[in-house]
Amino acid sequence: MEIVGILLPRSTYYQTIGFDLYEGLRSGLKQLGRSDIKIVTENIGFGADKQQCYRSAEKLLLEENASIVIAYIGHQTAQLLRPLFLATNRILIVLDAGANMPHEWPTCPNIFYHSLHNSLGASLAAKEARKDGYKNAGMVTGYYDGGYLHTYSISKSFQDNGGTISFNHATGYKSEDFTMEPLKDHLNNFPESALLSIFSGDYVQWYFEQIKNTFEEQNLPVYLTPFGLEETMLGNAIYPGNNVKGIAAWSKKIESVENKTFIDTITELGKTPNLFSLLSWESATIALKALELTLEHKKSIPNISQDLQTLTFVSPRGEIYFDTKTNTSISPLYKASIISNTEGKCELQLEGKITEVNEYYKKLTDQDLNQTTSAWYNSYVCI
Amino acid sequence: MVLCGGKFAFNTLQLLAYEKFICAIGIGKSNNTIIDALERESEDNNLGFKSFPTKKSMEEMRGWIDAIKPDYIFCISFPFLLPESVLSYGNNKFINFHPGPLPQYRGAMPIFEVLKNQEKETAICAHFMNEKFDQGNIIFNDPIRIQENDTYGKLTVRLCERMSQVALNMANMLQFASNIPNQPQDESLAYYYEKPELTDTYINWKRMYADEIIALINACNPWNSGADTTLMGEQIKIIAATLLDKPHEDKPGTIISINNTVNVACEDNKQIAIEILSTEEGIMTAKEYALLKPLVANPISN
């Protein structure tokens, strides 16, 4: 029997993240006619404890004999696991939020990254702000979200497109410390500034509430990244105004057979489809191909890797293929805005698909990080 | 503990020290400036230090290791073979980081060999050490792409940077793993390359194709100050050249033209365009060579 391992994290504000990832993979394999594959799981907590991550991966490989391991982790943890996967000659599929940017983009044939591209989305959101005519912007984030290098991506992109970052505001991570009051002064000093905003989970809800309460009726121009436009959180967020937009990685509103199948399958299980179940649902296709190639190439990683790089498939968010330089999946991104539903909460409205994502991704991976570093090891949104 | 051979290990030493993995540094035969710099850094960072300038001095190694009691000993380009008396400090305690894929590229200068052989990829191989050079069980080969026009120098710098991360990964692995997966080397794939001699760095115009010559030139730059050859009866070294996909009707090794480059006929009806070369008069560009050798340049241009 084939065995696929999955490292599952936990998150305080996405409490079902582990179940979502597991269910997405299980349902994805079932959809592809491979319910026979055994899935073994290991818990990695918030993904920040190196020893826990290593030991969990080791257990899946050496005790459970998993042929492939899937893990919701970042680049730094993947680097930690790299020698283990090289030594055991197995494939690791990293489910990557894309929130951090590594100093050295990965080139390991054993590791494939399947990404939600939050940093790339951040870069494109800033580009949209410039296209909308904003010359000045402030980056608005929090202690937690601000620790990942999507912050660098959003600022750099705005500047590279001719804009000026006039101010930054990073708020606290506890509800009592979370405030948008300093934005009043910033916006007095720099009126007509776009707010390049990086938040996830509960923080999106807190942010919208404060924007609405502090800047009532002002319709501040807010630009968000894929995790800021995550639909399950938006469904509980107060509608802040009619000038909130950004770049989304996926939406329930994408009209395609593949998306409908995914949504129906997860919904029938009594669960709400989200970015995490989507990511692992898609990873089922990658894992199956990797298993097939492992047999075909008799575990020769260079050959498996070379063929896996050519995999393309249509997922609920569109066509997915790999950037061969970094072993990272490229997927469509969507321009989106926020509208109000009948209850005064937020809803995503798709405005168009972004073409040439691969070209933007190449630019992102080519840019110099100018000694900017991140010490956030945990998988994004896992706090 | 890290046993090293000099500058190639500096990035690794810095990173491992920053991550607080190092307790002592040993250096093999190296120049005094490097030894002094390492000794100073070791003192400043409260690390043990010892120099092993000769094979004879290796007799002191076991006592030094016993006094420091490291958990593991990493070797990066350490020039001497560790004797059984040292290796007996502990089973699977010594890990070598070989700057080439094993078992295919055993030997002292794998960077030269992979470039000369026009490989598309090389690796840093982490392996347990035994009493023979590069022959212990392999833990992993961490692959690195070879880029077009990589010279020995360029690839060495990239390997040196990558080595630090590979060694850190290995240190983390040792810290967290319940066991270290490893396997014996496949002897049917093994090859030991002796240290290159003149025959290995010499361009034989009659027997080598243009791409092989370019690969050899890149593989010799800068450590051998270029690839050795005889051109128009003179012993020279070619330091930098590119492939010129232009047919010709001359004998291999003949200078066909000199413009910004010295263009030389090759066996496979292609040419190589020499940009920089070294003669008895010194290192010079093709233009300078043309001025210096009018008798070589003029018959062709006339």
List descriptors.
heterodimer, A: alpha/beta, Rossmann fold, five-stranded parallel sheet, 22% strand, B: 302 residues, alpha/beta, Methionyl-tRNA Fmet Formyltransferase, Chain A, domain 2, 2 domains, six-stranded antiparallel sheet, 10 helices, 31% helix
Indicate the topology.
The complex is a heterodimer of chains A (383) and B (302).
Chain A lengths: L2 E6 L8 H15 L6 E6 L6 H14 L4 E5 L2 H14 L2 E6 L14 E5 L2 H14 L4 E7 L7 H11 L3 E8 L10 H8 L3 E6 L3 H13 L7 E3 L6 H4 L9 E5 L8 H12 L6 H22 L4 H8 L4 E3 L2 E6 L4 E3 L2 E8 L5 E9 L2 H10 L17
Parallel strand pairs in A: 1-2, 1-3, 3-4, 4-5, 6-7, 6-8, 8-9, 9-10
Antiparallel strand pairs in A: 10-14, 11-12, 12-13, 14-15
Chain B lengths: L1 E3 L5 H9 L5 E4 L4 H13 L3 E4 L9 H8 L4 E4 L7 H4 L6 E5 L7 E2 L2 H7 L4 E8 L9 E8 L6 H25 L15 E2 L4 H4 L8 H10 L7 E5 L2 E11 L10 E4 L3 E4 L5 E9 L2 E4 H7 L1 H8 L1
Parallel strand pairs in B: 1-2, 1-4, 2-3, 4-5, 6-9
Antiparallel strand pairs in B: 5-7, 7-8, 10-11, 11-14, 12-13, 13-14, 14-15
Helix pairs in contact in B: 1-6, 5-8
Question: What does it look like?
Answer:
The complex is a heterodimer of chains A (383) and B (302). Chain A is α/β, with parallel strands linked by helices and 383 residues long. Chain A has 12 helices and 15 strands. Chain A has helices at 17-31, 50-63, 75-88, 118-131, 150-160, 182-189, 202-214, 231-234, 257-268, 275-296, 301-308, 357-366, and strands spanning 3-8, 38-43, 68-72, 91-96, 111-115, 136-142, 164-171, 193-198, 222-224, 244-248, 313-315, 318-323, 328-330, 333-340, 346-354. In chain A, β8, α7 and β9 form a beta-alpha-beta unit. Chain B has 302 residues and is of the alpha/beta class. In chain B, α1 (10-18) runs parallel beside α6 (152-176) and α5 (110-116) runs antiparallel to α8 (210-219). The radius of gyration of chain B is 23 Å and the shape is elongated. The model of chain B has no long low-confidence stretch (mean pLDDT 93). Classes of the chains: A alpha/beta (383), B alpha/beta (302). The A-B interface holds A 50-51, 54-55, 58, 62, 79-80, 82-84, 86-88, 104, 107-109, 302 and B 121, 126, 139-145, 165-166, 169-170, 172-173, 175-182.
